Amino acid sequence: MSIDECPLGSGAMSGLELPWDRTRIARMLGFERYCRHALMGVASKEFMLLIGAELSTASVTLTRFVTDFMNWGSSEYRFMNLPDHLCGILFSDAVKEKFYYFRINYRKINAY
Q1: What pTM did the predictor assign?
Q2: Is 112 helix (H, G, I), strand (E, B) or coil?
Q3: Would you tell me how many other CB atoms lie within 10 Å of the CB of residue 24?
Q4: pLDDT tens track of the chain, all 112 residues?
Q5: What letter would DSSP give residue 80?
Q6: What angle do CA 108, 103, 85 make, to 5 degrees?
Q7: Which value, to the nearest 10 degrees, does the dihedral of the CA atoms of residues 110, 73, 100, 64 take?
Q8: Contacts of 73 (CB under 8 A, 6+ apart)
Q9: Do 16 and 36 touch, CB atoms closer than 8 A?
């Protein structure tokens, strides 16, 4: 069932025997069409799958954006200057001093 389908007239999974013009009712209520199958009109859970898919896509996009944001602000690229309260200095033997945006990385991890 689409969000743009009118469930009015589906009945309790067995349909409705009143002589309603369901197409006209759907148009009057602002829907594009009416729900053809009664079970899809009253018991469909497809919308939860669609919402989950959209939220998953949004979180992946946000994570990719934050990763690019961290790279652009890193000491290798220096495309932008991020505030110091977002980064810390990472010391290691290989890299003597490197800015690491740990607070942004925590937000990226929480997006999953």
Answers
A1: 0.53
A2: coil
A3: 10
A4: 577 888 887 776 566 677 888 899 999 999 999 888 777 777 778 888 889 999 999 989 988 888 887 788 777 787 877 776 666 655 555 555 555 566 666 666 665 5
A5: S
A6: 150
A7: 30
A8: 79, 80, 81, 82, 87, 99, 101
A9: no
